[in-house]
Amino acid sequence: MTIKISKTATKEELAAQLRQLKPAKKLDVSKYAGKVRWGQDALDYQRELRDE
Prior knowledge:
With 52 residues, this protein is mainly alpha-helical.
């Protein structure tokens, strides 16, 4: 979000505009952390992709 602040804005006006900002959403990184469970060995998968 963008806030336009004039050069003549007082500290009170600036503080009021900052209070109106919505807090950013927190990202739940534990949702994405961990290992990917494959049904096959990683090396076999690479060989299959590369046609080796």
